[in-house]
Amino acid sequence: MRRGVATAASTEQSGQKRADARRNIAAILDAAQECLIADPEANISHIAKHAGVGRVTLYGHFPSRADLIDAVFTRAVTESDRILDAVDIDGDPREALARLVTASWKIIDQFRALLLAAQNHIPEERIRAAHDRPMRRVRRLIENGRATGVFRDDQPVPWMVAVYHSVVHGAATEITAGRLTDQNAATLITGTLLAAYSPQPAP
Questions:
Q1: Phi first, then psi: what are they for 120, rounded to 5°?
Q2: Which residue in 47, 57, 139, 180 could disulfide with 174, CB within 3.0 to 4.6 Å?
Q3: Keyword set for this entry (predicted)?
Q4: pLDDT bracket for residue 180 (50, 70, 90)
Q5: Contact, 150 vs 97, CB < 8 A?
């Protein structure tokens, strides 16, 4: 009987520890996102204090600042992808592109500082890998445009997807540098992409 009681108590304690760990991780990720959006160079001590945990606890879940930024960035991309699922990319590909750019830009503008932190601490290939799922949506839109003759078909689709990624994130970099304003960013991005995607006149 005592052994059974001890086992039950141990199981309960183990479950409580896991629940505490999940709460700590969520608090750390929330705090890191808020801190990094406010300041891309926010340090671990500031993030831990904002999360209400100690540095040892934070490092117990995220061994380095880069690991923490990677986790925050990946979570933000996953949430962004969920939001973009609601964007209609059917119909006229040009109008669909404008809708997707507008919705994407609202998200990127919100997380612009977080993207900067990621670019400073995460390898470029890791950032691109995090965008794989969202970019599938762009790929489908481009393929629809090519199939209907609205978009050019003389360039590889992966290249056209890469152009989308580069132009959108390039706009975020330009705004951070003060060379572009966010008020007209979506219009400029859409215009640039339409110019790049439009069929070229025959020579």
A1: -85, -20
A2: 180
A3: DNA-binding, Transcription, Transcription regulation
A4: confident
A5: no
Angstrom distance (rounded) from CA 33 to CA 113: 10
Mean pLDDT score of the chain, rounded to an integer?
Answer: 88
E strands present in the chain: none
How far CA 128 is from CA of 64, 110, 115, 118, 119, in Å, comes to 21, 19, 12, 11, 11
Q: Residue 144 in contact with residue 96, Cβ under 8 Å?
A: yes
| Residue pair 33/8 in contact by the 8 Å Cβ criterion | no
Same fold yes or no, 1-63 and 68-203: no
**Does the pLDDT at position 26 exceed 60?**
yes
Looking at residue 86, its amino acid is A
* HEC profile of 35-76: HHHHCCCCCHHHHHHHHCCCHHHHHHHCCCHHHHHHHHHHHH
Q: Give whole-number Cα distances, 89 to 80, 130, 148, 196, in Å.
A: 16, 21, 14, 18
The CATH topology of domain 1-63 is Arc Repressor Mutant, subunit A (1.10.10)
